[in-house]
Amino acid sequence: MGPHPAVAAIRLAVRRVLHDVLNEHRASGARDEPLVLAACSGGADSIALASALAFEAPKLGIRAGGVTVDHGLQEGSDRRASEVAVRLRTMSLDPVDAVTVTVGRQGGPEAAARDARYAALDATADRRRAAAVLLGHTREDQAETVLLGLARGSGTRSLSGMAAVSGVRGRYRRPFLQIDRQTARKACMAQSLPVWDDPHNADPAYTRSRLRHEGLPALEKSLGKGVVEALARTAQLSRDDADALDAWAAEVGETVRAAGASGEAPVLDAAKLFALPPAVRRRVLRRAAIEAGSPAGSLFAKHIEEVDRLITGWRGQGVINLPGRIEVHRRCGSLVIRRRDEAAAEH
């Protein structure tokens, strides 16, 4: 008799990802056993992920480890992190790290916690020289991410949700993006694995929590049970489109440089920019702003739209200020993007 269907589903998803990691590791010329870490909070999704990694990795000649992050946001969080680490070790994961982080305030509580968590995961992966870190995001998580992107109105890339592969050198892998949350929970129940339900996930003070417990159920009630699947499918289609447009923008980026322009600050030809499709032009503008020093995480669609109007609705507008003390202005048919202190030095 085979494993429970839910257990079989999560193991298959993890096995496919591990095959990819192993092939990439060997293609790099390495001959040792790669280390793959499961990021685990103790919730059903990540416990199911860790259990599948522990089962599948040894069969492929892969070392399986784990890491749990203590955000320090709840009383007893340090004790819970230690308990999760012990649980991972009982699954025969090795090495296992419990990392404590300090959560700042920039971008709001959810964004600050996420930034601190990924910084800790990056540091642990670097220290352990891990080939990959597995994350337990499910199809519902993907649907929530798409809706949050839709609310921000940030375009196709924002609607593309979470990538199956992301991070430096493809470090982060998300095997469960096509698996629903209930399957992960059933897999834990079938294996008698204890799970912890984070109270923050039910706290209405957090946007994602409200979306999970109020927004998505309301959509499913109005539109039917296929909403989550449809949103996850939208994410993949949007990602494919965004990738293609990004590649196009990268190709044409150098062709729109103003003739005779010198220096490090991007100087772009306004007429050549005007001739591009809007989706490509805005990507070129975004890339140029980041090149000049504007931080990508603070550069929103509204900023790029303002810059775009220097091309499509030129009326003699003044300087456009971007995050990172970057300014953009139009001069003699060219778009100049540079740091504010560089502009001041010319005067």
Strand proportion, as a percent range, falls in 5-15%
CATH architecture heading of the largest domain: 3-Layer(aba) Sandwich
- How many H/I helical runs? 13
Question: What is the radius of gyration computed over CA atoms, rounded to a whole number of angstroms?
Answer: 23 Å
Could you name the CATH topology of the largest domain? Rossmann fold
What structural category do the secondary elements indicate? alpha/beta
This entry's quaternary arrangement is single chain
Arithmetic mean pLDDT: 90
Could you tell me how far the N terminus lies from the C terminus, measured between alpha carbons in angstroms?
80 Å
The amount of helix comes to 40-55%
Outline the biggest β-sheet: 6 strands, mixed
According to CATH, what is the class of the largest domain? Alpha Beta
Give the strand order, joined by hyphens, for the main sheet: 3-2-1-4-6-5
Structure keywords:
347 residues, alpha/beta, Rossmann fold, Uridine Diphospho-n-acetylenolpyruvylglucosamine Reductase, domain 3, 2 domains, six-stranded mixed beta sheet, four-stranded antiparallel beta sheet, 10 strands
How would you sum up this structure, described in words?
This protein is α/β, with parallel strands linked by helices. It folds into 2 domains: 5-235, 3-Layer(aba) Sandwich (Rossmann fold); 253-345, Uridine Diphospho-n-acetylenolpyruvylglucosamine Reductase, domain 3, CATH 3.30.465. The protein contains 13 helices and 10 strands. The protein has helices at 5-27, 44-56, 77-90, 109-128, 139-152, 156-159, 181-190, 207-223, 227-252, 270-274, 278-292, 301-312, 340-345; strands at 35-39, 63-70, 96-100, 132-134, 165-166, 172-173, 267-269, 320-322, 326-331, 334-339. It has a 6-stranded mixed beta sheet, with helices on both faces. It has a 4-stranded antiparallel beta sheet with strand order 7-10-9-8. Strand 9 (326-331) and strand 10 (334-339) form a beta hairpin. The mean pLDDT is 90.
